[in-house]
Amino acid sequence: MRKAFITGINGQDGSTLARLLLNKGYEVHGIVRRNSIPEHQELRIDDLTNEIKTYYGDLEHSSAISRLLREIQPDEIYHLAAQSHVRISFEIPLYTANTNAMGTLNMLEAYRLECPQARFYQASSSEMFGTGIDADSCQRETTTMLPTSPYGCAKLFAYHIVRNYRKAYKLFASNGILFNHESALRGSNFVTGKVVKGAVMIKLGMLSHLEMGNMDSHRDWGHSRDYVRAMHMILNHSEPDEFVVATGVTRSVRDMCDFVFSQLGLNYQDYIRINPKFFRPEELPFLKGDATKIRTVLGWQPEISFEEMMIEMIEYWMNKLKKS
Ligand code: NAP
Ligand code: GDD
User: Fold this and answer.
1) Tens digits of per-residue pLDDT, 143-158?
2) pTM value?
3) Which of 96, 202, 205, 218 can pair with 89 through a Cys bridge, CB separation 3.0 to 4.6 Å?
């Protein structure tokens, strides 16, 4: 039985990946922070408690991580834990850098010293591209990376140190450069989760309006289930490498709002107010990924459309809020 070790196992992707790996017959281990938000733990992994093995752990506590990797001896390490909110990274940049950059280095050192035969996946991000964009308006593995947030800068350090460790120590360490991906398990302070939850609350008479930031930025949104499948394929490739994971379709935040409110029979313009609080000091205005490499080399392709994903999220919040 293959063993997987997941950091961030109670996050959107960690919990979705745990389900995928359990279905594939893996023994799944993961760390959860002692002070983690209880709502997230219950929501995302409580139904898995008899199937996965969780331990208290924090990326900052390198000795505890080392001990766990020594004892477990995983075949595959999925390093997904991070302070993952871009706007919040402007409010707590040092914390974000410690967690996302130094935390990754802590993980790599523990991996190199305790279980170098394992394979290591790093949750790299399209936020690393920032304003870098190719002439055809796409971002791909070769696009210049010019991050526009403390989050993006910290992730770029992590991306490079993973490459450095791969080459320096001959480790199987890969970067998945994932564009935005969502699901019903998405935190409700990310834009899709916020808009779906807010629109459903308006529909149910629980909220009068929704305050938003930049409606004109564009994102390439895919589904978390498709993207954790890509993570597994990346680690099971014959060699370590970098792969962009994206749908290749981009939409504005405004268009996403229009779709969600329309599904509920509402006009988004009647309910959305702009609040400067939700703007970022520097914005990443446009993301559109070219996933040709992973499509051709690994045969990955997304299976869930944007519309199916948003409807799944609406149904989830409608059922949840109707019961409350
Ligand atoms: P998420 O839902 O915010 O999950 C992040 C996880 O990291 C949570 O379980 C969180 O635990 C944990 N964590 C945070 N700080 C930690 C620390 N110091 N020690 C241990 N665990 C810690 O994020 P996600 O959407 O699943 O994303 C997974 C990874 O992919 C992240 O690294 C993110 O930056 C990256 N990524 C995400 C996307 C996307 O669109 N979703 C795209 C590209 C890359 P708590 O519950 O305790 O906070
Ligand atoms: N969160 C949020 N809240 N975003 C808003 C709002 C709002 O009220 N109003 C407009 N936006 C815009 C943001 O300015 C941004 O341009 C876009 O919506 C998407 O914001 P988020 O959903 O917070 O995601 P993100 O793109 O900043 O970051 C996500 O994707 C990255 C990959 O590109 C996160 O999942 C990161 O962890 C991930 O690396």
Assistant:
1) 999 999 999 999 999 9
2) 0.98
3) 96
CA-to-CA dists, residue 189 to 16, 37, 54, 182, angstroms = 19, 14, 26, 12
Residues of each domain in the chain carrying CATH 3.40.50.720: 3-181+221-245
Spatial contact of 145 and 133, defined as CB atoms under 8 Å apart = no
Q: Ligand 2: which residue has its CA nearest to atom 19? A: 191
Q: 175, 242 in Cβ contact below 8 A? A: yes
CATH superfamily of 186-219+250-323: UDP-galactose 4-epimerase, domain 1 (3.90.25.10)
pLDDT level of residue 323 (50, 70, 90 thresholds): confident
Q: Locate the ligand 1 atom nearest the alpha carbon of residue 180 and give its number.
A: 40
